[in-house]
Write a structure and sequence with these properties.
Elements lengths: L7 H8 L8 H8 L5 E2 L1 E6 L14 H7 L7 E3 L5 E3 L2 E6 L5 E6 L4 E3 L5 E4 L2 H13 L15 H5 L11 E5 L2 E5 L7 H4 L10 H7 L17 E7 L3 E6 L13 E6 L7 H7 L5 E3 L7 H7 L5 E2 L6 E6 L14 H11 L2 H10 L2 H13 L21 H12 L1 H4 L14 H14 L7 E8 L3 H18 L4 E8 L1 H7 L13 E7 L7 H4 L20 H6 L2 H12 L5 H18 L2 E5 L5 E4 L23 E2 L5 H13 L15 E2 L5 H34 L1
Helix pairs in contact: 1-23, 11-15, 12-16, 13-21, 20-21, 22-23
Length: 696
């Protein structure tokens, strides 16, 4: 049966993450089980920010901070709803192409000292997007093809930004015109690419906007940046004049630098009151003592939407971080990595269970495993999950490799030494003039023991399964600055210095499979540079097969009237990407065992975007959270996330405001979503069981 785009809210919500507004009764019930609150959050950090330009940077080390300084049109509440922030409400035209937002009066801009500067208006959102284009924002792909005329403006086909589909009708009315309906558009408004900038301030600071000083930006959000000292401290203070200050429960947020060289130090910091939580690592010698000391207070995080990948550099240009000794070795590795059978051999030789024991120990090693770039339950088709649809397409592509494959989280879908050995022999028959063993350099942050152990695990896995006469892994130990420059901070392909990396991760930006799959598009994909491609290197890119992949993504993106068909087409694209083994997903962010003072489910929740990086709503208590407290909070959260959210994706003149009720949403949607809701509850029950086992 066809489903119109009107139902996209239910598909994402009931299958995954979003919920209804909290009733006052249930909210007060949760308050009864919260301990004495403290007004401070404390944690450590490893990597310094590189930019405060929130419209430019997509890197988590930057956005995890800036989302606390700036409010956009919508935000996430504790239950995953998209609720009004700077926007009081919005309406969608009958054809789903025009989104009109009413801006909340009285949302003020402040400098870093808390002095009032100006009011946030609709014009600031126009300025923000125009600035993002001018600085060639890393986040442009999120909206470049969405907003009418923006792609043409970026590519120079039109030169007047006034022709782009973002308009300030007046100070309090903002209008976006889209190229085609996007029922998930509101989920994009929580991302920095659509955040506001005050034009007068931007003119006054010029190129220094977003530089690494607290006075380089204005603040309309919950916190002000009060201290930013490299490799020392990052501190926020509450914006006392914030428009929604009653929902900010922290006076300070403090991050203290730690290089990660002593994994047991976090336990000691927690005992000293220097951090608000610590990760319980089952691989450490102190684990039994910690388990005994905090019996009944160890809980487990839930899996998140992010995916981390073993990613290959298909066109390596820099060879400083290397264990190779000759140019021939570099060229042989390049040729091998362009061979699909070789990459597939690596995929089937990757023992994810053993790899994850380095972080979670034997008992919990499988809990965080992910097998797909797109989370397998991210969206639901009529009769199957997204992951099941991908499995079906993989079987059709290659029954010998993929028959009966299970792509669910929490288990390793691919590790198979027999298949890996057949594939390495196939690769050797296809590669001419190549000497063996193929040497694969992987950069390693030398100060972090678990990172060193991860690299050792990969080396042991690949060399044992494929034979060290065929493949050798070279862990290259680097200091932090060199490591980051070779990997995470490399902005052009010429600076990417590895054959493979296990540090690439992607957090979905919005609620559609395209948010994952677009990152490997051969023309503007966000992950082109990490796999070795700049826009000018088209010939090398063609050898990767990514243009064939782009056609599959394009075909899926063109389907706007049938959700099953759209998601199935994206599943086919994901199957191609999986089979190509250009990147091999292995885990998601979450599932850590921890002892925490953070009140469970008090902070914002989102499966996509940066919502969970915000400290608004978050509460911290003076005592650690018990498992009983966590379970009660989980039950409350689970009971309130069933139906549609105020993302309000309905086309046809729909309107969302703060008074939108659960009953109105249910009346419109619950009949057709009942079956999906039942499936979701089963999934959540399983999640609760896993967490209970972990706590024990």
């Amino acid at each position: 049966m066809k489903k119109s785009l009107r139902k996209v809210v239910v598909s994402f919500v009931t299958a995954l993450t979003l919920g209804s507004a909290v009733s006052p009764l249930l909210a007060s019930a949760q308050d009864e089980i919260v301990g004495d609150l403290v007004p401070e959050y404390k944690a450590t950090y490893l990597g310094d920010p590189t930019s405060l330009d929130y419209t430019f940077s997509m890197r988590d080390s930057n956005t995890s901070h800036t989302v606390n300084f700036i409010d956009g049109l919508y935000e996430n509440d504790q239950f995953g709803n998209y609720i009004p922030s700077v926007a009081e409400s919005h309406e969608v035209s009958e054809d789903g192409l025009v989104y009109t937002y009413k801006i909340r009066p009285g949302v003020m801009w402040f400098d870093n000292n808390g002095n009032e500067v100006a009011e946030t208006t609709a014009h600031d959102f126009v300025t923000g997007l125009k600035h993002a284009v001018e600085v060639q924002s890393e986040m442009l792909p999120i909206v470049q093809s969405s907003i009418k005329g923006l792609n043409d403006y970026v590519n120079g086909k039109i030169t007047d930004f006034a022709e782009v589909g973002v308009k300030a009708i007046d100070d309090y009315t903002l209008e976006y015109t889209l190229e085609e309906p996007e029922p998930y558009f509101n989920s994009k408004t929580t991302y920095g690419i659509l955040y506001p900038i005050n034009q007068e301030f931007l003119d006054s600071v010029g190129d220094d906007f977003g530089s690494l000083t607290p006075d380089s930006i204005l603040y309309n959000g919950a916190f002000l940046l009060s201290n930013l000292t490299a490799k020392s401290e990052i501190e926020y203070t509450k914006n006392e004049n914030y428009w929604d200050a009653d929902n900010v429960f922290l006076d300070t947020v403090q991050f203290t630098y730690n290089d990660g060289s002593d994994p047991e130090v976090f336990y000691r910091l927690y005992k000293d009151g220097a951090v608000s939580f610590f990760t319980v690592n089952p691989t450490l010698p102190i684990y039994d003592d910690v388990k005994a000391e905090f019996d009944g207070y160890i809980t487990q995080q839930q899996r998140q939407g992010s995916s981390f990948l073993l990613q290959f550099n298909l066109n390596r240009l820099k060879h400083e971080a290397t264990g190779k000794t000759t140019e021939k070795q570099h060229e042989d590795t390049h040729q091998a990595l362009l061979n699909k059978a070789f990459r597939q051999a690596i995929m089937f030789a990757f023992d994810k269970h053993t790899y994850m024991t380095q972080k979670f120990g034997e008992e919990f090693a499988d809990t965080d495993i992910r097998n797909l770039l797109v989370a397998p339950e991210f969206v639901m088709l009529e009769e199957e999950s997204f992951g099941e649809a991908v499995a079906r397409h993989l079987e059709e592509m290659n029954p010998e490799l993929y028959e009966g494959i299970n792509l669910e989280d929490g288990q390793d879908a691919f590790f198979n030494p027999e298949k890996a050995q057949k594939l390495i022999e196939q690769a050797k028959s296809e590669l001419e003039g190549v000497d063996y063993p193929i040497q694969l350099d992987i950069p390693v942050l030398e100060t972090v023991p678990v990172a060193v152990n991860f690299a050792k695990s990969l080396k042991a896995s690949f060399e044992e399964v494929l034979g060290s006469e065929n493949v050798v892994v070279n862990p290259v130990l680097l200091n932090q600055d060199t490591y980051l420059n070779a990997t995470f901070n490399a902005t052009v392909a010429a600076e990417v210095d590895y054959d493979m990396t296990n540090e690439s991760g992607w957090i979905p930006d919005y609620l559609d499979p395209s948010t994952f799959l677009d990152i490997y598009l051969p023309t503007n994909g966000t992950f082109l540079v990490p796999i070795g491609f700049d826009p000018i290197l088209k010939e090398a890119r063609e050898a990767s097969g990514l243009y064939e992949y782009a056609e599959l993504v394009k075909a899926a993106d063109a389907i706007n009237d049938d959700l099953d068909a759209r998601y199935d087409a994206y599943a086919k694209a994901q199957a191609w990407l999986t089979d190509s083994a250009i990147a091999i997903p292995f885990n998601t962010l979450g599932s850590h065992l921890r002892v925490t003072n953070i009140v469970p489910f008090s902070g914002p929740y989102s499966f996509a975007g940066t919502g969970q990086r915000r400290f608004k709503f978050l509460k911290v208590q003076s005592e650690p959270v018990s498992y009983e407290q966590w379970q009660a909070a989980y039950d409350n959260w689970s009971a309130n996330k069933l139906d549609g959210s105020s993302v309000s994706s309905e086309v046809g003149g729909s309107k969302t405001d703060e008074s939108a009720s659960k009953e109105e949403t249910e009346e419109e949607m619950m009949d057709e979503s009942a079956e999906e809701t039942e499936e979701t509850e089963e999934m959540k029950d399983e999640s609760a069981e896993e967490t209970e086992e972990a706590a024990e």
